[in-house]
Amino acid sequence: MSSSLSRRGKKDQARETLTPEEENVILQRELESVKMRLSSALVRADEAESHMRTHRLMLSDLQADFETEKKRSFDIIADMTRQYKALREDFARQTQRLTNEISTYKDKLADAQRAYAELERIKDSDLALKDVEIAEHKRRMDRMGEDFTLMLQDTLNKMSEKITITTHWNLDQDNPVVRTFEDHALVDSKLRARADAVGQHQQGAGKRP
Q: What is the rounded CA–CA span in Å between residue 176 and residue 195?
């Protein structure tokens, strides 16, 4: 600061010794120098402003790119979020549907098992009733067979008694009772053979002295 003041003081002292024409020349030269420095400063200012505009444009482009990328990223994130929510909801629906189907199939299986158990019970009950009926029917058949055997035996006994009685009538009539039984198919071959044997025995006994 002091050195610049001293140089200015020296210039002022030197100018005091110059004529006006010389002072105008010096001033003109200083003016030209100032204009050149101003022009150079303006050029640098223009360049700086141009660089500034370029940087501002670049910054604006970067800002626009950033906003675009941010919006695109936001859209991607939002879309992925929607897809995730949709998949989660669909998975929840499928899980609920499968759970309901499993519950339904379990109920149907339980109903089928109960129905099968009821059918088995009815079948066992029917088989038991059939066994009882078969046993009762067999018992009745056996009883009927025994009754029929007794009745047949009693009939045969009575017929034998009648045949024995008729042999005392007239032995020359050639067994009229047996012929009557043969005509009515009431005696079998064994009974006829027995009757014939009895008749022959009686005839032989009657011819004895």
A: 11
Contact indicator for 178, 195 with CB cutoff of 8 Å: yes
* CA of residue 178 relative to chain centroid, distance: 87
**Contact indicator for 199, 175 with CB cutoff of 8 Å:** yes
Pair of tokens at residue 116: 């099968």
Provide the residue type at 181 as one letter: F
pTM greater than the 0.70 cutoff: no
In order along its 209 residues, the chain shows pLDDT tens digits of: 455 545 555 555 555 666 778 788 888 888 888 888 888 888 888 888 888 888 888 888 888 888 888 888 889 999 999 999 999 999 999 999 999 999 999 999 999 999 989 998 898 888 888 888 888 888 888 888 888 888 888 888 877 777 766 655 444 444 444 444 444 444 445 555 555 554 555 445 444 44
